């Protein structure tokens, strides 16, 4: 299965935030990717109407055939078969698809931020779109497609939980959910390489290297908003994790990558101590 290609034409609306909302609600993956990339190339921030309130979004647009299920209903397959690798790459495609929406929502939801803030999150959305298209092409080459297997929607649930506060969003989406990818991706790359699927391993390596920067952007704006509110970052991060995740962060942690992504040694020591 393949999706229709969408030209990078103008949006039907001119206001910046409406354009971002349209991209979030777009259900066609190729069109969503095109819109994310166009927003980054031509953000038109001078058209941003900061006085208009952001809409609540219970779910972003996604393909109609995509089945959302509880994580407990998802099966794991061995990477030694192409079907097993397709299932893994399909799961990662869904993570990247949701990551487009999460980055766009960070730009859409929180008003009266600096132009640099919006440009950062649009750059992340464009990167995530590129990642999704890489995996989508891999799936098509290997006789699969995005929507063939069921997926869960935990990433967007955290977006809903943090839609009231930019500080909570910066702490819990990039610095918790996306940072988890820094911990687990190296072992997946190793397993794919061992299975002889260098194409999949190379895609994950590209994603891993880019995600260090994405988590770093989250750290940058988390620290910015802590400073703006006169909050101590380490204790604030722990409090937000305790409130939203019952204080639980799963290890082991990729300390080298997390240090590059804006964590500090004291934070990592506290994570390891839990």
Q: Which class best fits the helix and strand makeup? A: mainly alpha
Please tell me the CATH architecture by its name. Up-down Bundle
pLDDT averaged over residues: 90
Radius of gyration from CA coordinates: 18 Å
How helix-rich are the residues, as a percent range? 55-70%
CATH class reads: Mainly Alpha
Number of strands: 0
Q: Tell the overall outline.
A: globular
List the helices and strands in order.
HHHHHHHHHH
CATH topology: Ferritin
Number of domains: 1
- Segments where pLDDT lies below 50 for 5+ residues? 1-13
How many helices? The count is: 10
Distance between the termini: 45 Å
- Tell me what portion of residues adopts beta-strand conformation: under 5%
- Main β-sheet, in a few words? none
Sequence-ordered SSE layout with sheet pairings:
Elements: H1 16-25, H2 29-41, H3 82-109, H4 115-141, H5 154-161, H6 166-194, H7 198-229, H8 233-245, H9 255-260, H10 265-273
Helix pairs in contact: 1-2, 1-3, 2-4, 3-4, 3-6, 4-7, 6-7, 6-8
């Amino acid at each position: 299965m393949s999706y229709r290609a969408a030209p990078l034409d103008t949006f039907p609306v001119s206001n910046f935030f409406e354009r971002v909302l349209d991209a979030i609600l777009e259900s066609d993956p190729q069109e969503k990717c095109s819109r994310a990339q166009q927003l980054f190339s031509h953000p038109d921030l001078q058209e941003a109407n900061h006085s208009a309130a952001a809409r609540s979004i219970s779910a972003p647009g996604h393909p109609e055939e995509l089945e959302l299920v509880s994580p407990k209903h998802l099966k794991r397959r061995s990477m030694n078969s192409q079907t097993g690798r397709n299932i893994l790459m399909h799961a990662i495609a869904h993570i990247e698809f949701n990551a487009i929406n999460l980055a766009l929502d960070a730009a859409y939801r929180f008003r009266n931020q600096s132009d640099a803030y919006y440009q950062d999150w649009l750059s992340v959305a464009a990167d995530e779109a590129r990642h999704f298209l890489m995996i989508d092409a891999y799936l098509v080459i290997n006789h699969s497609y995005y929507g063939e297997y069921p997926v869960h929607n935990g990433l967007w649930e955290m977006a809903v939980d943090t839609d009231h506060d930019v500080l909570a969003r910066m702490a819990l989406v990039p610095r918790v959910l996306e940072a988890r990818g820094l911990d687990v991706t190296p072992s997946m790359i190793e397993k794919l390489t061992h299975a002889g699927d260098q194409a999949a391993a190379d895609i994950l390596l590209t994603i891993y290297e880019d995600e260090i920067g994405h988590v770093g952007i989250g750290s940058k704006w988390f620290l910015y908003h802590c400073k703006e509110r006169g909050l101590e970052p380490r204790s604030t991060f722990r409090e937000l994790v305790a409130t939203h995740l019952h204080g639980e962060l799963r290890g082991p942690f990729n300390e080298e990558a997390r240090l590059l992504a804006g964590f500090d040694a004291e934070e990592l020591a506290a994570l390891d101590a839990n």
